[in-house]
Amino acid sequence: MGVKIRINKGRIYLDVYANGQRRWESLGLSVPNDKQQAKEIMKLAEVCRSKREAQITSGEWGLIDPINGKQTLSEYIETMNKGSGGTITKALKFINLHNRGNIAIANVTEKWIEDFQDFLLNDTELSKSTAAHYTGVVRQALKKAARDRVIPRNPAIGVKSISVPESDKIYLELNEIKKLAKTELGGILGAEVKRAFLFGCFTGLRISDIKSLQWGAINREPLQIVKRQEKTDRKVFIPLHETAWKIINDDAIHNHNHKALVFPELTKSKTNTNAYLKSWAKKAGIEKTIGWHTARHSFAVISLESGAEIYTVSKLLGHANLRTTQTYAKVTDTLKRKAVNALPGIEI
To answer: Hey, which bits of 165-209 come out as E strands?
Structure first.
């Protein structure tokens, strides 16, 4: 094991040899022409080399990382935020509000986590579900920190999570989808919203995947969608139902650029398309409050009610855990009635 300073074309690198492998790590520093400045830069490089060596040594001996352990919780979570955005960014806002967010990750205790959960539930206007998501960011960070030997143990293990009641899944029955299909939705964007929502009802795709769906993801033989999901980065293979194919099939079907979007109007406008869905449902005489995810819910429930195996539906939806798909089986009255009607009878 060893860490040495190397200079290549004026750029300064760390030559790291650990676990039988060698790699170079850029320090983002260059050697200036001025001798005095160069001397100061090399001093800084030596500090970096020393710290990197200490980190590697602590890892090899199962010791706590002496460098990252001094990071604040917010700083450590920031390192997890590359490309994640969304929940982590929003959670950081509340982590920084609580105790000003300057607690070192090595000093986070069970009591701090309990206080943070109480803060989210009692001192903010967040719902229980949102508070649970934000606490989950902290738990994820502490789990990772313990695994990477940044902290000696994960303090979140002994803290009870925020209990969140199971949310109702709103879905449309087939006759309601037919009503929507027969109801016009005006304007160029409105027509695109209608097509995209109905397409979601027959493919189970999330709105993020519908927006990013390119013609190159549509296979002709066999007719199916092959796409990596935006949310989970999991690849799904979805055979195209005849109705779904009719929705997107047009005269230029063979001339589309592979990188062209199937529903381009959805990304052109910054208009809140959920408003379109609500007015569309009202116009069709549907009292349910629908959103984009309603299409995905509808696909799952109708598939199960039509006899598809729950494992198959899980794969079509791209779920990592079968339990996630099982929640759809709970909400369908048709499956419950089929189960009851299948019971043998007796003479009374």
So the answer is: none
